[in-house]
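About this split. The held-out portion is used to measure sequence recovery: a designer receives only the structure tokens and must propose an amino acid at every position. Recovery is the fraction of positions where the proposal matches the reference. Here is one held-out target exactly as it appears in the evaluation file.
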């Protein structure tokens, strides 16, 4: 007999032979509109526990072959119980979603039980690592489950939407695929999209091991003094820098959403570190620029960073901030929502009192954008480094001179701009005021970061 797809997904995620099913004999209760001859094994969801690289995890997988994977009363109660078990074991919960919505035959019973799932997600938000993966359909209220998870993934063929696209006003004219994985990854930011189910399961495994495996990255065999390449130093590409600084790899989170703000995890001499960084361009594997990104802080970027910083705070994961923010993106969305988005980011940085924080000023950073990116004044950063060619100040020298010395004429303004650059924007000036602890050569970044986090 062929293995059902829901169970197959679990077995591909977990270590071979480690899965133990819980609640296999649970079935739906009779309701007014129950179809008596319709079998519902496990009530459409397989739940249980197993291991990823020897680390315990709890997992549920919705079975679209049983009543189209719809969520009914017992289906939801099985998931809610799994959260209680995971909390006692201090283990993650991983949900593999493939659901046709709520079971109409069970009405309020199904809805109330679904509410219990959301309540468990909220109750254990600070104690249980929650990961969701949309492997098929996820519609309506079911979208709240990945939204309330710490990390959410989708395959490129999956669909997720609150309202069916054809019901959205003017969508026929707009021709937007609101249900598509591409939209969810790049526009809504609800989930990170990967090419296939295998890629999604692999990334979940990598994430779980990196976040909960105490042995991960502890080999200590890598060169602590390894230099950053000249090309990466010249490009000032945050993604390349973090990859070269890492012992093994930089695991980026939600790369397609607000790509001007980089978030992810790496280890530095075995120390797990969360990283937030600014990026003004995308580069390919050869280091060739493929796209320019938003110039300055954006609403989506700040909200993305705020959520990531908050997660690191809750888990007491050390935080690295790589700053190269020269202002705010000059678009309508900035005027509409950026102050609120920056406020979220500031609160996240300020509330992180239990995890060590190291800042690196990689590029030119000016004004309030510099402060918002975790400056010591709001984050109480333990150590602040700056590359020796970086600039830190109120604004670019030319703009400042045009404001301060406009009455003195063009030549005088140019001269004053040069003076302002040296006295106000030079990184040594920031160091003289105590805003920067050490000015370093870019090539030696990895060594300095390792030394800092090792001492904190």
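Reference sequence for scoring:
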């Amino acid at each position: 007999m062929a293995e059902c797809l829901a169970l197959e997904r679990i077995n591909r995620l977990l270590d071979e032979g480690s899965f133990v099913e819980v609640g296999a004999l649970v079935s739906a209760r009779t309701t007014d509109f129950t179809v008596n001859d319709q079998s519902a094994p496990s009530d459409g969801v397989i739940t249980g526990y197993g291991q990823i690289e020897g680390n315990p995890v709890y997992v549920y997988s919705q079975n679209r072959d049983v009543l189209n994977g719809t969520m009914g009363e017992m289906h939801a109660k099985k998931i809610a119980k799994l959260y209680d078990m995971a909390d006692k074991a201090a283990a993650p919960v991983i949900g593999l979603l493939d659901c046709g919505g709520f079971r109409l035959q069970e009405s309020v019973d199904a809805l109330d039980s679904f509410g219990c799932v959301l309540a468990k997600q909220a109750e254990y938000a600070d104690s249980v690592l929650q990961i969701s993966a949309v492997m098929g359909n996820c519609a309506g209220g079911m979208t709240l489950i990945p939204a309330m998870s710490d990390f959410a993934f989708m395959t490129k063929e999956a669909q997720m939407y609150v309202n069916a696209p054809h019901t959205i006003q003017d969508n026929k004219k707009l021709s937007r695929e609101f249900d598509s994985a591409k939209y969810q990854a790049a526009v809504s930011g609800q989930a990170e999209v990967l090419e296939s189910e295998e890629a999604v399961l692999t990334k979940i495994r990598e994430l779980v091991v990196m976040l909960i495996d105490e042995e991960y990255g502890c080999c200590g065999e890598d060169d602590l003094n390894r230099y950053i390449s000249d090309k990466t130093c010249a490009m000032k590409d945050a993604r390349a820098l973090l990859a070269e600084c890492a012992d093994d790899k930089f695991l980026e989170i939600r790369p397609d959403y607000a790509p001007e703000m980089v978030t992810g995890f790496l280890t530095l001499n075995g120390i797990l570190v969360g990283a937030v960084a600014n990026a003004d361009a995308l580069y390919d594997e050869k280091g060739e620029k493929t796209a320019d990104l938003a110039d300055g802080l954006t609403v989506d970027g700040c909200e993305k960073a705020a959520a990531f910083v908050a997660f690191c705070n809750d888990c007491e994961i050390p935080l690295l901030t790589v700053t190269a923010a020269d202002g705010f993106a000059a678009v309508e969305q900035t005027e509409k929502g950026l102050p609120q988005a920056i406020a979220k980011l500031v609160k996240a940085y300020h509330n992180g009192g239990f995890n060590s924080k190291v800042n690196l000023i990689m590029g030119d950073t000016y004004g309030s954008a510099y402060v918002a990116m975790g400056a010591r004044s709001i984050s109480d950063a333990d150590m602040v480094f700056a590359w020796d060619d970086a600039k830190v100040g109120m604004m670019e020298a030319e703009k400042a001179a045009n404001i301060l010395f406009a009455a003195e004429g063009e030549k005088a303004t140019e001269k004053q701009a040069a003076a302002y650059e040296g006295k106000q924007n030079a990184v040594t000036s920031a160091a003289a005021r105590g805003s920067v602890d050490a000015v370093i050569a870019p090539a030696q970044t990895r060594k300095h970061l390792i030394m800092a986090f090792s001492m904190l």
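Annotator remark: Residues 87 and 127 are 7 Å apart (CA to CA).
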